[in-house]
Amino acid sequence: MKRLLIAGLALAAGLAAASWAAAEPVDDTLEIDGKPMITRAKAPEGLPFDEVLSGWLYREAETRDLERDSFENPAMVSVEDGEVLWNKVDGTAGKSCATCHGDAAESMKGIGASYPKWDPDSKRPINVELQINKCRTEQMGAEALPFDKGGQNELTAYIKYHSLGMPVGIDLAEGDMQSWWEQGKELYYTRTGQLNMACASCHEANAGKFIRADHLSQGQVNGFPVYRLKSGFTSLHNRFRGCIRDTRAEMPKAFSDELMALETYVTWRGTGLSIETPAVRP
Amino acid sequence: MTRRLKFTLGAMAAVVLSTAALASEIAPEAVEFTDDGVVASLTGTPGDPAEGAKVFKNTGLGNCLACHVNADMESDQFHGDVGPPLDGVASRWDEPLLRAIVVNSKVVFTDETVMPGFYSLEVGKGVAENFVGKTILTAQQVEDVVAYLVTLKE
After folding, report:
1. pTM of the predicted model as reported, rounded to 2 decimal places
2. What is the CATH number of the domain that holds B134?
3. Number of structural domains, chain B?
């Protein structure tokens, strides 16, 4: 039965194609505070398309403008909150981040573009959020920050902000990064939930198309944490969980092995794109 | 179809328990696909196109507009374009094929399609607890949607 119908479908799709045009990413350039952002980069070997594209290119003009202008960007206050936390002494050791790392503009430059990275202690990839927790528990004698709480996203954004404009490039040669990448890839193409969709169903097969009011991008992570016009300041694992929930599947826990594998793989998919933290998205 | 059969046998027990199906209703795993599509009504009760139009639009039910442009629903905002426009779809497909597409589009197209199976238990991994063993639409909602699709003539 299948073969027969595909012919019919091809015909139908052919007829239909004329009547709707996929809204492609815009042809526009992004500069933030005078720094040029790389919003299009040559795709790393192994992706089924030539270019990787920032989610910024899929946004409406007003949303793009909000990100362009640091004074307008609603998430810049969160970055400033992050700076306060950077300098705040916490924990039994009487230290702040600044005690060890000094001026973040110097010490954190490029950090946000190189995570997740291999952590030999826990033998898994860690992201900036987990690195913060590692410093807090091992150096500061402070509690780990719970997911999305206690200024975790603000501090993460403050750290990533110091890589603004720098191209994403993670080191897969360290430790077992490669096998986590493989697991992440597997997850990216695994269909989940009652709706039976994978990340690739939306962000690879249908990037550029509309799913109801949403213009589907490649689902790149280079802007996180982002300011969402819909729901405010939003972390990456919150976004991952939301997309998975939308397939009507159980959501993996933030920072679980599953989501760390996914973050490793999806970050790689955006190799070469500038860090845009904090990006503005619908 | 052996793969399909194997899959459904496992899921069967759970479903029989969870959906107190009406006696005349065809259970998801018992739906018969032929070369002509799904010929038999899933319920024996004729579909209601007006109800079908509601199911089609409703974001918690069919949410068909998420992926399909449909000029008949021009006054509703935000038609997606992940799938082809459904304008005149009944001139391209007969009722049994439309029913087959809604029940489980993967049988009609390929396993690669992103269109969900609306009356199928062939689902993805890790289905959220409240959806386990359940289909997206009920048998009657499928009949209603099909009755609506049949009105979309060129």
Report:
1. 0.91
2. 1.10.760.10
3. 1
Q: Is A135 an active-site residue?
A: no
Number of residues written out for chain A? 282
Q: Could you read off the pLDDT of A181-226 as tens digits, one per residue? A: 999 999 999 999 999 999 999 999 999 999 999 999 999 999 999 9
* Residues contacting residue A7 through CB under 8 Å, at least 6 positions apart: none
Decide if B136 and A194 are in contact by the 8 Å CB cutoff.
yes
- Per DSSP, A107 falls in state H
ipTM: 0.90
Domain that holds residue B64: 28-149
Residue B11 domain flag: no
Phi, psi torsion values for A234, nearest 5 degrees: -135, 130
Whether residue B81 lies within 8 A of chain A, CB to CB, comes out as yes
Beta strands A124-126; A35-36: pairing state = unpaired
**Cα angle for residues B66, B67, B73 (degrees, 5° grid):** 70
Conformational region of residue A215, where left means phi above 0, alpha means psi within -120 to 50, and beta covers everything else: beta
CB pairs under 8 A between A and B: 114
